[in-house]
Amino acid sequence: MAQPAVPSTQVQQPTVPLRVPVREILPWAVFAAVLGLVLLYFIGAEQGATSVFSGTWVHEFTHDGRHLLGFPCH
Ligand SMILES: [Zn+2]
Hints:
CbtB_put; rod-shaped; 3 helices; mainly alpha; binds zinc ion; membrane; transmembrane; transmembrane helix; CbtB-domain containing protein
């Protein structure tokens, strides 16, 4: 009796194509994008005439991040 070309323990299972559940990911992607934009605003533009909050506490809190990302500061 002839032996099979591939031993039965090494039979390849059919590959299932990877599916990306866009409908499940989309709300989280939108949330992350909005959160990122808010953070980018507070780091990059929350000062002077564009300031939403009075005072300089937001500016001082994000000061190192502003310099790290190369936004103009002082
Ligand atoms: Zn600065």
